[in-house]
Amino acid sequence: MGGDNYTRRGSRHTGVMPAAASRADVVRLRLQAQGLAGVTLPGAVAVAERMLAVQAQDYPAGQWALGVRSPGTTLDDVQAVISAGEIVRSWPMRGTLHFVPARELGWMQGLTTPRLLAKTRTINERSGLDTVVLERAREAAINALTGHKQLSRAEFMEMLRAAGLSTEGQRGYHTIAHLALTGTLCWGRQVGTQQGLVLLDEWVPNPRRLEHDEALGELVYRYFLGHGPATLVDFAWWSQLTVADSKTGLAVARNRLTEVQVDGAAYFMAAETADAAPQHTPVLALPGFDEYLLGYRDRSHVISTDELVRVVPGLNGIFLPLVVTNGRVVGTWRKKIVASGLTTEAALFEDAATAAARTRAAKTQRSFGLAVQGYARFLGVPIRQTVKADAPASA
């Protein structure tokens, strides 16, 4: 494999010394595992299958996360597979909305929801959402949605109020999240720029069913398939499973994984992606909250601590869109979409104080312009202009 320090000294089998890899190898292989370099993934469903879960609390950003990994895919294509129920948006883990392949959601929630509900129970009860209230909400939702009906978020809130249930403050949001986490609701067809709420059992009539340890193994394998090479610590953070469950899943998935040593630590990737050849990696215009950065506990492979603060200004939990070159996050960008087209603005981290730095910045800016042309094609709008920002971009 590529990388000066990557030597295949053995295989993934027990008792044979694992291969060694450099940090540069990790970055290169992650780009390919995530569909950002190398072999093109043929559409949004293929991206969801590869990644298993793509963060989607920001709905437009989540759609571009699918599109940027499947060049040629359009926003209409993504919305079509969402509205057809091939990809579902719900809360599979960490209390965060993700896109997942529809048939995989149930077994994922079976693993991750119990711990999350234990954490949210006290918060819900303090908000007046005890078990009795939440079960009343579930009954009202089932009555309102049975028969493949759908309600927008506003309509669902009105339905809850008509049933005598308060939606003040965050009660409505937490009610929806609880009913989704416990397998009653998910987001369904496109309604304007948003999605409507549907019954999960009707929306996904043939879910994949796995036994507990089998599901643990599948979750571990699918994480490393779409995110490897990565560590078990990365997986445990991403999934929020216990260390014990993470180790059980690794043991079940072990014969489908390849292990490499990076600075003395064990990293894993799916065996079928372990021999991916080096590929040219263009400048990328990734969305906010992208899995390329958020999918790992340790983000130091692609960004420094000082630069991370510029991606998450004030460490407020809002991750800005990313400019990535050679696998490194080198800046942020923002957009404005109006009737006449798309305007983008990139803010690079490096201080262009020297001639060499200015040359690098100019080259990155030119390549970024090509990257956002792909975004414009995805949206189906013309490019108006791409400009350089003098300060870090904001959301």
UniProtKB/TrEMBL annotation:
Keywords: DNA-binding. This is Winged helix DNA-binding domain-containing protein. Pfam families: AlkZ-like. GO terms for molecular function: DNA binding. InterPro entries: AlkZ-like.
